[in-house]
């Protein structure tokens, strides 16, 4: 079996068409935000403080909360409390253009607020709203058939037997263990699965629990598809205009994103699987598995992390079995978070030395990604030659396999054609000759690429 993409380990297969989930409606009152007046007032106060001078319109934009019946009420409360004052207006229409600053009394108040939390971004959504959304868009509702599998992996050299193992694993939406020698495309298979999952999810910028903020959106792991714009629905219609029914505005605290694909490797430590508390900003960062909810979480190079494999495995026993993860706040309070993740463990180490039977029993699917057969190796070589503009030669390939594999007892790997042809291109460029699969260039490529043991 082999798995090898045509273009530098990156398939061009497209996910299925998906209109995506719908944005929740924008809250029309402070109560509908799920947040208290005090929390929003503190957030607005911090936004004004960090900006120096800012208009009500920009406060609404930065907090992703509507001006009417939310921001206007909060600003009225802050002004009556003498925490903020109006110092003019920028170009615009109505009270949205009023410019706000912190008063002397407000400065004392904001210092107290900043001691509790320095978060001053988009308003979070309540934990209950986040959990409801995760359950609504669960990956367990997907169905991946043979046609979708073959379409997604059409740019890879993967045999039908392997595809028929990948399909059920993707449909399980639970867990997968990929093992086998390095360089045969385990990571590529995991990435392919994330593409065939397709679809999209709604993710909030942040989540609120007991006044604490957990930042969830991560631009490194979340690709935005749609970001709702602010609607100025309090601007009156022109004189004589016919009144029309305006559909509900979307809640700008949510983002429409591709299904997450979170990948970690040997750099992973146990602390990154818990809520990460910043003692300076007093804000939590969501752990990797929470960021991956609704998508795929790949632990690459499993067994090479700085923590022992047993510790990492023990961390996953409850989430894998119960589909629920338990996270702890600094206060000691435990919160339940959905574990709606297809988690993939990928390793080139011997599984027998990494995991015990109890853990393997909890992994739904185990797939060995073995070395390519000679025929598969030839197919890969032909494809890569075409993509790199190197004339393919059966004679050259026979020479390569005979001299540099069979004679030295070296195993075939799916990544070798790409890497060796890169070496051929380097050697040919240096010598000022066209790249070819001749004995001289292949010998030089192998001498530079392989390490003599």
TrEMBL record:
<keyword id="KW-0067">ATP-binding</keyword>
<dbReference type="InterPro" id="IPR050221">
    <property type="entry name" value="26S_Proteasome_ATPase"/>
</dbReference>
<dbReference type="InterPro" id="IPR027417">
    <property type="entry name" value="P-loop_NTPase"/>
</dbReference>
<dbReference type="GO" id="GO:0005524">
    <property type="term" value="F:ATP binding"/>
</dbReference>
<dbReference type="InterPro" id="IPR003593">
    <property type="entry name" value="AAA+_ATPase"/>
</dbReference>
<keyword id="KW-0547">Nucleotide-binding</keyword>
<feature type="domain" description="AAA+ ATPase">
    <location>
        <begin position="172"/>
        <end position="373"/>
    </location>
</feature>
<protein>
    <submittedName>
        <fullName>ATPase AAA</fullName>
    </submittedName>
</protein>
